[in-house]
Amino acid sequence: MTVSDLVLPEVTPVESIDFAAIPSPAFVLDESRLRRNLALIQHVQRESGAQIIVAFKGFSMWSAFPVLREYGITGATASSLNEAILAKEEMQGEVHVYAPAYSAEDFPRILELADHLVFNSFSQWARFRPQVEAARAAGKTVHVGIRVNPEYAEVETDLYNPAGPYSRLGVTRREFRDDLLDGVDGLHFHTLCEKDSDTLERTLEVLERNFGEFLPRMQWVNFGGGHLMTREGYDLPRLIRVVRAFREKWGVHVILEPGSAFGWQTGWLVSSVLDVVHNVKDAALLDVSVSAHMPDVLEMPYRPRILGAGDPPELDHHRETDSGVGGHPYLIGGTTCLAGDVVGEYVFDRPLDVGDRVVFDDMIHYTMVKTTFFNGVKHPDIGILHPDGAYERVKTFGYEEFRAKLS
User: Fold this and answer.
1) Where on the phi/psi map is residue 90: left (φ > 0), alpha (ψ -120 to 50), or beta?
2) E strand or H helix at 342, and its extent?
3) Percent of the chain whose predicted confidence (pLDDT) is above 70
4) Considering only CA atoms, which of 320, 186, 174 is closest in space to residue 252?
5) What ranges in 212-327 are assigned the alpha helix state H?
6) Cβ distance 307 to 361 under 8 Å?
7) What is the DSSP string of 36-76?
8) 321 vs 24 pLDDT, higher one
9) In a domain, 23, yes or no
10) Model confidence at 168: pLDDT above 60
11) 247 and 102, same structural domain?
12) Cα(149)–Cα(167) distance, integer angstroms
């Protein structure tokens, strides 16, 4: 089956959604858009022969896990003990664990939970190998991998480049210890960040050049995440071809663990205007915080899209604006005491009033998992917009959640 033969689920038109009826603030997952992504991911999994699991660091909205399971998603990758427990209890499939370092306190429980366990260094493998061997001797099945650093990446933002200079993530070829491979049956690499399949193809060429001599000894290779296969224009046929070729050449099981691809363009952060102030420029203060609820806006940085709003003239050449947007500019900011709690300037087609909804697009992947309770500001609800148009509020946050994070 080709991509053109796929019958994808219909998505709910944005213009038909009554955002004013959704309690603000709220992260809203659109189930119809999630199902569309899952249909594409399922196609890649079936046609390539790879196993695709969900990376919790990018998408861990566990109320949506039953939908993921409908599309053959059989596991998750965790980066901590807490995520491993969530994978076991809520995803209810294979638990794959990788962390830059494991603590002696957490490791026994992680080992108990994990089906695949990846070590970032040979020193960590040597330290915990006796526990792994004891568990295997007692009947535990656990696949062990070493993360490698091919020292090749095409990631533009240093903050998200796992293979940048002096990276602490993964073993380089010159530090690789083939004398410590007993008990290791897989390799793992992660060098992508929202990249297309041509980048993966070039990365695999470097991986084979640097680590090809060890691949015949492996049962599996984990290609990590960053495969944005649900983005419009992504070259899915190339991805399928590249994965198939690698599997057949080396006789290994291939695992992909995207995060963004699951949540890509699947929902919004709905906010409301609390006040409009004027100091040379008009500024709209929202019931969400950039620093607490959209930290990547400041960290990456990037400029999110707001439904129904466009860019000021000086930014027009950088990205498309919505047609019909008029000439009412506002600085959009949050309600914490941080002076820089500002998204930026946007142009609306009419003046903003208190109570108006301001809806940020594409806020489900990564954004939700990185929120904080800074300043004790109200945390957005989590909700699901079902295909029949019904809105379900699945989580609301109050004082108890804020208090529980402190002591």
Assistant:
1) alpha
2) strand 342-348
3) 96
4) 186
5) 236-250, 260-263, 290-293, 296-299
6) yes
7) HHHHHHHHHHHHH--EE-EETTT---GGGHHHHHHTT--EE
8) 24
9) no
10) yes
11) yes
12) 8
Amino acid letter, residue 154:
E
| 211 and 184 Cβ atoms separated by less than 8 Å | no
Q: What is the predicted pLDDT for the residue at 320?
A: 45
As a whole number of angstroms, the distance between CA 271 and CA 330 comes to 15
SS3 230: coil
Question: What are the tokens at 252?
Answer: 């290994």
Residue 24 is assigned to a structural domain of this protein: no
Domain that holds residue 136: 49-262
What does the block give as tokens for 182? 């007993």
Whether 290 contacts 370, CB under 8 Å: no
User: Can you give the length of the chain in residues?
Assistant: 407
What does the block give as tokens for 257?
């663990």
Q: Residue 113: pLDDT band by 50, 70, 90 thresholds?
A: very high
Same domain, 279 and 393: yes
* Domain assignment present for 31: no
The CATH code of the domain that includes 244 is 3.20.20.10
**Which two structure tokens, joined as six digits, stand for 152?**
């090749």
Residue that is last in its domain, among 262, 287, 316: 262
Confidence band of 161 (pLDDT split at 50, 70, 90): confident
- Which amino acid belongs to residue 220? W
Q: What is the chain's Cα-based Rg?
A: 23
pTM (2 decimals)? 0.93
Q: Is there a domain that residue 17 lies in?
A: no
SS3 call for 4: helix
Burial bucket for residue 400 (CB in 10 Å: 0-12, 13-18, 19+): exposed
Q: Which two tokens mark 103?
A: 């603590």
Q: Please say whether the beta carbons of 221 and 117 come within 8 A.
A: no
Q: Is the pLDDT of residue 379 over 60?
A: yes
**What is the separation of C-alpha 147 from the centre of its chain, rounded to a whole number of angstroms?**
19
Question: Residue 90's closest CA among 113, 107, 71?
Answer: 113
> 307 and 240 in one domain?
no
- Pairing between β-strand 267-279 and β-strand 281-286 as defined by DSSP bridges: antiparallel
